[in-house]
Specification:
The protein is of the alpha+beta class and about 725 residues long. The protein is built from 29 helices and 14 strands. Among the domains are: about 210 residues, Reverse transcriptase/Diguanylate cyclase domain (Alpha-Beta Plaits, 2-Layer Sandwich); about 55 residues, 5' to 3' exonuclease, C-terminal subdomain (DNA polymerase, domain 1, Orthogonal Bundle); about 120 residues, 2-Layer Sandwich (Dna Ligase, domain 1), CATH 3.30.1490.100.
Length: about 725
DNA sequence: CAGGGTTCTT
DNA sequence: AAGAACC
């Protein structure tokens, strides 16, 4: 009975009903009906996957140092164990336990410092990127969780394999009393469970990571059900069991989306369990929370959640912070700020975008009311400084930023009086993609015909449909991409044609589908910019490790999925992420108990050294000569040479370039021009761009904003990570 | 709340 | 700029 909503099952005949149900709850209602026709098979309901890695930080450390697999391992940040492996859990160690308690319970506990998130961040993005290579609709939640909307993928499989498949479920089915499980009643979820299993396998084989997955009809449910069978397993939630899983939640706090404050307010109303909330009159709830929040809370309690999976783009801000017992002198503050800035600026440089805003946040100690409250001040970053971040040495940049930071500091703290800080955070936000600058020169562009906007768009095409079911306004920018985007093929591989974004799926199945040459664009050109862009960024970064050496990640995303897949196939990539040993090589074995092993560049000396080394490798920042061919010359950068990331992918790569662009011509252009073009491609049409502004846009379309706004501006390169 | 992020809302 | 949420 339930709650209608998206949980209804399909059946072609019923989708309409379920669609209506789900829409009724949301603001999208108005546009509802029209959506149906926009794309043939509008999914009646979605199939959402939620992936949650097992003790993420601990897994990363165990990959870096396999010896840690057999010992009880705890990841320590300051005085707490933020997570630990299962060996440690068996011995009573839990997450967020203090180091002393943990050691008490498990004296042999091995500790690895986890304050430096670099490795975790890198692995995190690799995972998101990997998922994106199979399905564009991936939304990150923290470093170790990802939602994936596989509705379209499921529909395709359903269409392809009439009834063969869907006869079974992979993994568990959330069903207290699993009387009769009839996969045939839930073919989409059954297929979703197969996809989840395949993706988990890919995650394991390519990254060496294990984790759980939840398969359901919306994000809320997928996330909740993912946690039912813990270590490295997956669970599917059928619509008929929605009330079971929701009813099981003793406290409203267990509902994702209901935090401490909200739980308290609910408690004040006498609502503690999810059931209480389910039964509480909406009107009364409205009095306390207002219509939107009240409605949302009610829906969550019922397991109803129509929020779309919003492809996460490049991060909107980069920050670095440190907490400590006490800092009470301006000098110490300055020193700490400098330290934080050094690493932040480095990260910013790798990102490639330019921050427009700088923010300083502090937390002051105070017995009463203590912790918790943070105060911050922000200010625009003068252009000349912002530009240095990517061009000049980071040391210089830091020097320029410190005064700004101190100014902000003094706006919050009266240093003539005593003060006691316990945390300092520095943050860059309002990140803008660079490269658009010179776009003006039309002449250059004229070498290529259409292209400009095509790019990533296609990658996302599949999503569109989803969106239509998800939120009403999704259509917004469809018209922009009228161009189909056929890619003429670059170098080697097959000439594929375009479109079907769906291709990656083939990979899951183990076969490549190279389609016959020209496929008409069946998936409409429409789609979104938005998403496309958005995702592209983070993706590039990570994907770097998987790409063949001569492929520029930026360009990579401009390609159709088919080609992307190709490039990612073993034949093209170099040995790497593999599960095994390779990755651990870098790690210094005995990092046990030590704090931070290879984290090189925190120290300026190291930075300097790296820089010098880099200089030798690459005479100038911008190579003047293009290297249109082969990676022969390519050399895997040393582990520490992060700065090289960008250079490792010569801008010239002759193989990937947007559609109608002649690769040869492209490769012969000066690097600067190449970059310029690439950035333009990424930005989509300048006109609608919208992009740049980003901020303003959001208020308009809350949820959907995502797609649009982010994407558009997303920007360029970020090679967050080493090319491993 | 720990920690170090990050995003979105108010 | 602060609050709330999530990991």
């Amino acid at each position: 009975m339930a709650n209608s909503e998206d949980e209804m099952e399909e059946d072609e005949t019923e989708w309409k009903n379920s669609f209506v149900d789900s829409v009724s709850l949301s603001s999208a209602a108005a546009s509802g009906p029209s959506l149906n026709k926009t794309s043939g098979p509008t999914p009646a309901h979605r199939v959402i996957l939620h992936f949650d890695l097992d003790c993420f930080y601990a897994q990363v450390e165990m990959i870096r140092n396999p010896a840690l697999r057999e010992v009880p391992l705890g990841i320590q940040q300051k005085y707490i164990i933020v997570t630990c492996n299962y060996v440690a859990r068996d011995q009573g160690v839990t997450k967020l336990m203090s180091v002393t308690d943990a050691k008490e319970r498990c004296p042999q506990l091995v500790l690895v410092k986890g304050e430096d998130l670099t490795h975790y961040r890198e692995m995190s993005y690799k995972l998101t990127e990997l998922l994106m290579s199979y399905c564009p609709l991936v939304e990150r939640l923290g470093f170790d969780e990802n939602f994936v909307d596989v509705t379209n993928m499921v529909e395709r499989r359903l269409a392809q394999t009439p009834e063969s498949n869907s006869l079974s479920f992979k993994g568990h089915i959330y069903n207290h009393f699993s009387a009769d499980v009839k996969p045939s009643d839930h073919p989409r979820l059954a297929l979703g469970s197969h996809i989840a299993a395949e993706l988990r396998e890919v995650i394991h084989s390519k990254l060496g990571l294990t984790g759980c997955a939840g398969i359901a009809t919306n994000k809320l449910l997928a996330k909740l059900v993912a946690g039912t069978f813990k270590p490295n397993q997956q669970t599917t939630l059928l619509p008929e069991n929605v009330s079971d899983i929701m009813g099981c939640l003793s406290s409203v706090r267990k509902v994702p989306g209901v935090g401490h404050q909200t739980a308290k307010r609910l408690q004040a109303l006498g609502l503690v369990s999810v059931k209480d909330l389910q039964l509480f009159p909406l009107n009364d709830l409205v009095k306390e929370f207002g219509v939107p929040s009240a409605q949302r809370l009610k829906n969550l309690a019922l397991g109803v959640d129509d929020s779309p999976v919003v492809p996460t783009g490049a991060p909107q801000s980069l920050s670095d912070e440190d907490s400590f017992k006490k800092i009470s002198s301006t000098t110490d503050v300055l020193e700490k700020i400098q330290e934080l800035l050094r690493s932040l600026v480095e990260r910013m440089r790798k990102d490639g975008r330019q921050p427009q805003t700088f923010r300083l946040t502090i937390r002051r100690y105070s017995a009463t009311n203590k912790w918790f409250s943070r105060e911050s001040r922000q200010c625009p970053i003068p252009n000349h400084i912002g530009q240095k971040i990517s061009s000049d040495s980071s040391d210089d940049t830091v020097v320029q930023l410190v005064p700004l930071a101190m100014e902000l500091f003094h706006k919050m703290v009266d240093s003539s009086a005593a003060f006691h800080l316990t945390l300092i955070n520095v943050c860059f936000s309002n990140l803008q993609s660079k490269g658009a600058a010179v776009s003006g020169k039309g002449s250059i562009k004229s070498f290529f015909t259409h292209s400009t906007s095509a790019r990533k768009t296609q990658i996302f095409s599949s999503q569109r449909q989803d969106d239509s079911s998800q939120s009403g306004d999704s259509n917004c920018m469809d018209h922009q991409f009228s161009t189909p985007c056929l890619i003429t093929e670059p170098t080697s591989q097959k000439t594929v044609t375009t479109k079907s974004p769906r291709s990656s799926e083939a990979a899951l199945h183990g076969f490549k589908r190279k389609q016959s040459p020209v496929v008409a664009v069946e998936d409409p050109p429409l789609q979104r910019i938005s998403c496309s862009t958005a995702r592209s960024d983070p993706g590039e970064t990570n994907i770097a490790h998987q790409l063949p050496p001569n492929v520029d990640p930026e360009v990579f995303w401009l390609l159709p999925e088919e080609i992307q897949k190709e490039l990612l196939s073993p034949a093209y990539t170099h040995p790497l992420p593999g599960t095994s040993s390779s990755s651990s090589a870098v790690v210094d074995a005995p990092c046990i108990t030590k704090s931070k092993p290879p984290q090189s560049f925190t120290d300026s000396q190291t930075i300097k050294d790296i820089k010098e080394a880099a200089e030798k490798l690459v005479p100038s920042n911008r190579p003047t000569t293009v290297n249109p061919h082969r990676p022969d010359t390519y050399v895997l950068p040393g582990e520490n040479v992060m700065e090289e990331g960008r250079r490792s992918f010569p801008q010239s790569s002759d193989c990937e370039i947007p559609g109608n662009v002649d690769p040869k011509v492209f490769s012969e252009l000066p690097p600067d021009v190449q970059r310029e073009l690439m950035s333009e491609w990424k930005q989509q049409k300048p006109v609608l761009k919208t992009a740049s502004s980003r901020k303003p846009g959001r208020s308009l379309m809350t949820k959907d904003r995502k797609a649009a706004g982010k994407g558009s501006q997303a920007n360029n390169l970020f090679k967050y990570f080493k090319p491993s």
